[in-house]
Amino acid sequence: MEFTVKRNDLLGxxxxxxxxxxxxxxxxxxxxILLETAAxxxxxxxxDLDVSIRCGCAASVRExxxxxxxxxxxxxxxxxxxGDSELCCTLLDNDWMRVKSGGSEYKVVGLPKENFPTVPQAxxxxxxxPGSALRIMIQRTAFAxxxxxxxxxxxxxxxxxxxxxxxxxxxxxxxRLAVVSKALEGLALDPEDAVPPAHPPLIGALMVVLAIGxxxxxxxx
Length: 221
Prior knowledge:
Layout: E1 2-6, H1 7-17, E2 32-38, E3 41-47, E4 52-58, E5 60-63, E6 65-70, H2 71-80, E7 86-91, E8 96-101, E9 104-111, E10 127-130, H3 131-141, E11 159-163, E12 166-172, E13 177-183, H4 203-212, E14 217-220
Antiparallel strand pairs: 1-5, 1-7, 2-3, 2-6, 3-4, 6-9, 7-8, 8-9, 10-14, 11-12, 12-13
Helix pairs in contact: 1-2, 1-4, 3-4
């Protein structure tokens, strides 16, 4: 695998996936991201087995392939490069990756791609929500979301209720309750789809997506 990519394009995608990378995981592969190249593009996948993110950017691909690298180390290298630079990444023996940019050269150790968890494909159909509305709803309920109740897993996230023309988000930590509703024109749902199940703990990842995404839209599958 060998590809060349613009630093700013790659940095935006790497910043996006940091929210789901396991910092102290007992499973080493979860600290890595999966890099896959195809004609003219680089795909990046990260997962903590609860939340998965797939993203990517344009790249000049000399040799197609795939591998995993340490998400944090790769991010730190790219972040320190000049903003207008390009970097060339080459997969070496034993899953090492060489990163070259200008006069700088780095080597990052990886793990075999076969060890990376299989991430399910997202459904093609979904519900489109305005990103600004979704961001406000998360900001107004995030204080009531707990991240320490391992025995009460459902409290680690928020419940998103959708009905025709209305979106409502509910969160609680067992002591505080937060509820916010937003009227959304054009939100058409069938009656049986009005109350979807509670989402997993992806609030932090969603906020990163909404902050970085160029389009003012969030998608809930």
